[in-house]
């Protein structure tokens, strides 16, 4: 997720690009590792245990993993500012494909959570993740339809952070399985702990990114305004700084320029 924190006109250094490159590599790597086994048509290839009707369960996972994997790959490119500004039409087309993928992936994900045999705790985590995934997508869509570009960006950062929990989950799972002999816990416990931890870590990371890279710079750009409509005072409480409406308040009041 790249943000224009460098002075306008100055190219980003390679060092500044490293987090975005790591994100893209991890997203493509996990999609390439996790999804193809659900495209073979053979339930024996499933990485998770299947229920009483293995073929049906496997097809549900295919219907979930294929679009979700595509969304995971497409997502990072939507945040690359030069790509977005130079090819706005491509951003719109890719954005629509991303949204359709998530809608399909989430619907199949709800069914997958219902028939999962990996334990009640993981099922609840998956239900909540699915709902948050759809809600953040709907908010992102609603704001861009209204022309509220910054709020669209904020919600799509949240949404992609949830998409990226597929990556974090698998990293935590690998670590948990390596520590399993020491921890002496069941696989389902490691699995559900990894699901919960991935959601928590990614949600916190998204909020941290939004506050430090979007909300704080917007608030710092506040300058004393002369009286008149553009100088109308805006009250943003400290506990509201992480709320996107704080950014929109500044934009609406003309204190903050959404095109900067
Ligand atoms: C962020 C929202 C997501 C939710 C709520 C979700 C939900 C689920 C659920 C409920 C299952 C079944 C797990 C089980 O039976 O124990 C599952 C499996 C799976 N999901 Fe997702 N998922 C999400 C995102 C993704 C993404 C972005 C990918 C892209 C790679 C993905 C790929 C898979 C795969 C490949 C499986 C099959 C199990 C495995 O091989 O690990 N999911 N998902």
Please describe the topology of this protein.
Elements: H1 14-34, H2 54-78, H3 81-86, H4 88-115, H5 120-145, H6 149-163, H7 165-183, H8 187-220, H9 244-252
The structure holds protoporphyrin IX containing FE.
Q: What's the short story on this structure?
A:
This protein is an all-alpha fold.
Number of domains: 1
Question: What structural class is derived from the secondary structure elements?
Answer: mainly alpha
Instruction: Report the C-alpha radius of gyration, rounded.
Output: 21 Å
Distance between the termini: 17 Å
Strand content: under 5%
Describe the structure.
This protein has nine helices and no strands. It is an all-alpha fold and 260 residues long. The chain has one domain. Helix 1 runs antiparallel to helix 2, helix 5 packs antiparallel against helix 6 and helix 6 runs antiparallel to helix 8. The radius of gyration is 21 Å and the shape is globular. The relative contact order is 0.09. The N terminus and C terminus are likely disordered. The site of protoporphyrin IX containing FE has 28 residues, from helix 1, helix 2, helix 4, helix 5 and helix 6. This is DUF2306 domain-containing protein.
